[in-house]
Amino acid sequence: MKNYLQELNSEQQKAVLHIDGPLIVIAGAGSGKTRVITCRIANMLNNKISAYNILALTFTNKAAKEMRNRIDQITQPYKAASLWMGTFHSMFAKILRIESNRFNYPSNFTIYDTEDSKSLVKSIIKELELDKEIYKPNVVRNRISSLKNHFIKSKDYNQRPELTQTDKIAKRDDFGRIYQIYEKRCQKSSALDFDDLLLKTYELFEENPDILLKYQEKFKYILIDEYQDTNFVQYLIIKKLAALYENICVVGDDAQSIYSFRGANIQNILNFKTDYPDFKEYKLEQNYRSTANIVNAANSVIKNNEKQIYKEVWTKNENGEKIIIIKTNSDSEEGRLVANTIDEIKTKIQTDNSDFAILYRTNAQSRAIEESLRRKNINYKIYGGLSFYQRKEIKDLLAYFRLTVNINDEESLKRIINYPSRGIGTTTIQKLNLAANKYDVSIWETLSNIDKYEIKINKGTREKLSNFQILINNFINNSKTKDAYEVAEDITKSTGIYGLLNNDKSPEGITRFENIQELLNAIKNFTNSSGNNLNLLSDFIEDVALLTDQDQENEEDFNKVTLMTIHAAKGLEFKYVFVVGMEENLFPSILSNESQESLEEERRLFYVAITRAEKRLFLSYANTRFKWGQYIDTDPSRFLLEIDERFTEKKETEAKNHYKIFPKRKTTFQPKQKKINSRLKKINLSKLEVSGKQVFDLNVGTKVKHSIFGIGKVMKIDGENQNQKAIIFFNDHGQKQLLLKFAKLEIIK
DNA sequence: ACCTCAAACATTTTT
DNA sequence: TGTTTGAGGT
To answer: Is A749 a catalytic residue?
Structure first.
């Protein structure tokens, strides 16, 4: 266990070995930051500090999971088990559930995601009969969120003229009212939104010194990763938690601060030094990740920012190849070029798809890229955009689960009270809602006591409401004694959702049905996971809102090209990186033209993009881009001019002389089906292809070869057609159950 | 109450 | 361009 230290440079070692007292580590891109953090925690554990006393805050749940695994590898496995490691949001949600009785919420509170809070804002605006042109739900929601991130509640807001003034000028005089009602409705629904998870934690500590002391004593050691992206409320909470022992270690890089739109504040790094005057500071400046060309190019870009902490990132790595800057004529040509280049590299050098990443500024850009990858048969996976848990069919089902666990959850109730349709229409819901607001009770309460709240509803509808009530009550009763899977399966079937989706044989319908099954499988795994304990639905549903699709790793996602926004790529690295859409008004974004500050943030974002690359970096832009149904002329990004030319090589695509002839968009190569998300469409096509070819030839005893697991033998085949599964025993990987339509199996004679 | 279709609308980045 | 909304018919 001692030898892990030898692999570290002297500055890294210092950061690992310095355990007590305030410590700030400025870690340049690719400087082995994750390694330092994991070694540091491992070292603490090996030095008789109990994992129970450590709080480690990361930026994503995935990062936490990976670090935990690595720590397990360098200490004894059980040691890290009681370590509190995760995102601010998930760790604080955990505390809030434990201490719920102290802040007037039940422990089974619901977490509203962005969509939920937006929908709540929308209904409030509607109820107040405000003009939704002036009160745009998104704008209002963002403003509420931003106020919360600055620790300003509606009560405070109304007392601050400079804030109310801003909204008066924008003709949103009633904003304060909306905010106030929003708070009240969340409370009534026993729901917390993302920002509340932080806000309420702070309040909890502020108002209950005994609880604060409890956690100060528990978390004797606090470690925060990506410190440059913490916001004001997070800063306040940490300051409180660390006040007793001041064993706080923050790790970050001001040059990679890219979340100020979410309230992140680089100022926190500077505050650290005044808050803990006897701090120690280490700078990790040696880059181990990228070639010298890439490191130097990144440096030449970031030096254009005025606001930054001085540091010199350098590397011993070889120069490597130059960064390629490519000019193309259109976004579709850009896509084709990326796909071709990947193909080329793969034929020259032995590389996996997973060594490639394509990064972009906005999610919408993924489309053109997808199309070209698909045509070249290059497997890819899109992160972000519509994540699994945000799909309609999943959210519908989750709404039933959420309502079963927390009957006050208004957003869930509204979502499913008439899905699948059971004859309870908008007028009925409006009546219930009106009464609920009048008597200050939940909608569930009003629909359970129609007469008590003097609601005029005819006999037929009453019966429908009563049936709905019985249905949900059944779920609630079951959920107390049965495990999560049993309840979930019952809900899926007895609501009719299962039958409804199973009958829809359109491609998108099939995908939806599969997604539902995938969710049920996830719940099954969850119930099987922890021994003999009864795993309740409420346990499963707890933090689903906090999951992103990076958290769910699928076996099929192995060896695929990664497509994601630059924001999502933070902390990751790839051998080959393509940054597409290097155009003015796209990157930097048109919205960042207003201020120097936001332009500098865009530049940091570009810095992050460049420094993701290990071996090679390709930057591309298109002269015309298809947007909102028409072609728009674009200019190359100013950032391209900022890169020192010594490190770049410029290229153009061959079609440069095809003057003003725009490539035709082919929408013809696929039969035009109604409205199908092209992403869903793609997945389906590939599945059908594979299943049609291979499914029927498999028998028990057949020898097969799998792209990842190697050679194995079919032990058992289950299910029919689309859902056929095989249990296969692989020589090197043991027994696996595979869905045949996914598994790429080759039959060996 | 529900279904269908056409017009209007919309694009930063996310826990 | 894809998605959401609202009007109008059943």
So the answer is: no
Among A742, A718, A741, A748, CA closest to A731: A748
Give the C-alpha separation, A382 to A390, whole Å: 14
Strand B lies under 7 A from the Cβ of residue A362 = yes
Residue nearest to nucleotide B12 (CA to C1'): A362
A193 forms beta bridges with A112
High-pLDDT (> 70) share of chain A, %: 86
Going by their DSSP bridges, the two strands A54-58 and A221-224 should be labelled as parallel
- Contact at 8 Å (CB) between A33 and A251? yes
Q: What is the pLDDT of residue A566?
A: 93
**A653/A394 Cα distance (integer angstroms):** 43
Among residues A305, A677, A630, A339, the alpha carbon closest in space to that of A508 is found at A677
Do A357 and A607 contact (CB within 8 A), yes or no? no
Query: Are A258 and A605 in contact, with CB atoms under 8 Å apart?
Result: yes
Report in angstroms the alpha-carbon separations of A192 from A88, A139, A148, A407: 14, 19, 12, 14
Provide the mean pLDDT of chain A.
Answer: 84
A677 touches strand C (CB under 7 A): yes
Residue A664 pLDDT greater than 70, yes or no: no
- Residue lying closest to nucleotide B11, CA to C1': A364
Q: What is the pLDDT of residues A703-717, one digit of tens each?
A: 776 655 667 777 766
Please tell me which residue in A12, A34, A341, A611 is annotated as part of the active site. A34
Task: Output the six-digit token pair for A250.
Answer: 């923050």
Q: Reply yes or no on whether A33 is catalytic.
A: yes
Question: Which of A225, A254, A393, A514 is an active site residue?
Answer: A225
Q: How far apart are CA A153 and CA A198, in angstroms?
A: 13
Check residue A714 and give its pLDDT.
Answer: 74
At residue A190's C-alpha, the angle toward residues A188 and A194, to 5°, is: 115
Tens digit of each residue's pLDDT (9 = 90 or more) over A112-147 = 988 888 889 888 888 888 877 788 888 889 899 989
What pTM was computed for the model?
0.83
Cα-Cα-Cα-Cα torsion A74, A75, A79, A85, nearest 10 degrees, comes to -30
Tokens of A255: 């040059």
Residues 451-470, chain A: which have Cβ under 7 A from strand B?
A: 461
Quickly state the pLDDT bin for A288 (edges 50, 70, 90): very high
> How many Å apart are CA A548 and CA A551, to the nearest integer?
6
Partners of residue A630 on adjacent β-strands = A627
